[in-house]
Amino acid sequence: MHIGSEQNRRKAARVARIRRLLSGVGIALGIVWALPLTFLGILLAMPILARRGELRLVHAPIPALLVSGPLADFMLERHPFGAMCAMAVGHVVIADRQGLTPQILTHELAHVRQASQWGFVFPFAYLAASGWAVMRGRDAYWHNVFEVAARKAERHA
Fold this sequence. Notes:
Blueprint: H1 2-33, H2 35-50, E1 54-58, E2 64-68, H3 70-77, E3 86-89, E4 92-95, H4 102-118, H5 122-135, H6 145-155
Parallel strand pairs: 2-4
Antiparallel strand pairs: 1-2, 3-4
């Protein structure tokens, strides 16, 4: 009985190592798949960082760079689609220094996960989802399936 349980423990450990490896490969592929968007996010972050901005790594299942600072506050307050507390561009989250809450960060990290899954086509899929909502007589933001999923992630954080 003892030998069998030792074999089961080794097998379980081997399976756990394989799962961690596959998860790491999946995360790496998602980062590469979203790289064009992340590059755009980095371009947007550079002036923020140059003007007393701050950069942090968010350790989450899908990692992200969190950028904030006075220029980020200014940009987010004057966003063409309306003022916001944060926005995700690929694996970069640009956030307001005062308005970023754990729930908003969770919401934006859901968008980072979506960018990992959809890659460089994510902005087009997002716009199509907004268009689909409008065609059905609904609000382009509140009824966009990507926003609905991000709000659901907020509630389950």
